[in-house]
Design brief:
Length: about 90
């Protein structure tokens, strides 16, 4: 809402400055609400997940490294970790 004549304004701020802060907070709240509304009602069908995992046919998933879980993508390529360190430079020099 808008600051009126009977509104309380924090010490050290003008009504215009305080209104600007409140408007910014309202804008953030609305953006967060809208972001969460977009996620609402988005569900994964468990039956599809179950069939894709293969648990309806056999128990091979139980012996896999992930135990039937889907792994999250990461920011880094961990297959190339060994390449990040210092390369061999011929030995220790004094």
């Amino acid at each position: 809402g808008k600051i009126g004549s009977g509104s309380s304004v924090p010490a050290g701020l003008t009504a215009a400055e305080y209104q600007k802060i409140r408007d910014g907070e309202d804008k953030k709240k609305k953006a967060n609400y809208d972001r969460n509304v977009k996620k609402a009602g988005v569900f994964e069908d468990y039956t599809e997940f179950y069939l894709k995992r293969g648990t309806d046919k056999n128990q091979k998933w139980k012996k896999s490294a992930t135990l039937g879980h889907r792994m999250a993508k990461t920011k880094y390529d961990f297959d190339q970790v060994a390449n990040d360190g210092k390369k061999y430079d011929g030995g220790y020099k004094r």
